[in-house]
Design brief:
By secondary structure, this protein is α+β, with helices and mostly antiparallel strands. It has helices spanning 35-42, 55-66, 86-97, 147-173, 178-181, 199-209, 216-229, 234-244; strands at 9-10, 14-16, 25-32, 77-85, 105-110, 131-133, 141-144, 190-198. Helix 1 crosses helix 2, helix 2 crosses helix 8 (234-244) and helix 6 packs antiparallel against helix 7.
Amino acid sequence: MSQTTPQTTIQIATWIDPLEDGKSRIELINSMGSDLDIVNDARASFEKVSKKLSEQDIKLIKYLIDHDHTSPFRGVVFKFKIKAPLFVCRQWWKHVIASNHNDEQLGWNEKSFRYVSIDDGDDFYIPKTFRQQAKSNKQATEGFIDETANLQALEIYSRQCDQSYTAYRQLLDLGVGREQARGVLVPSVYTSWVWTVSLQALLNFIQLRLGSGAQNEIAAYADGLLKIIKPIVPQCIAAWELSHH
């Protein structure tokens, strides 16, 4: 993929619970590349290679970001194991099907409810607080409903998840196949997938999902991803944050 230094493959057992419910998870399975790979790929046409990151290299990374010359970022690759509510997964999937040669998505392998059944009735995302519909944005929320309404919403939401799981198990017990029984599951059920993605595409995802109007839940995942990759490409992320904030 990219010109590499002797130690470009980094294996880190790093994970975050982005929704802070003890169920959600972002785990870095593996990564390849570093800040040094970015500058070496950028200078490939000149056949120049840096052995150690210099101040000039750091300035080059900043230049690449400021001028949107991010193709050298494709040589840095991450593999994550994600566990998220189904509705977050479907928002996330849009970034894969919309990808092109300028926004490289390398791999997506998702858990299938056709092959495996849900064995835990508690494996649903239950918000702690409920937000109000935004007045100026038809697809977004803002602020919170009052405490009394929040308690009622929590009861309704939790009950619906329980009923969904009960109906699912009853269908399976009747002999209904998993691929049909899954139809009664609500979108807050947790699913999981392995996502292999270039740094270029990952930064694009983070930028969009931390932007104005992004749903809070997927924004929490974007923020978690940023925290995980920052130690691996610190100069790149520092320059990116400076340019986008």
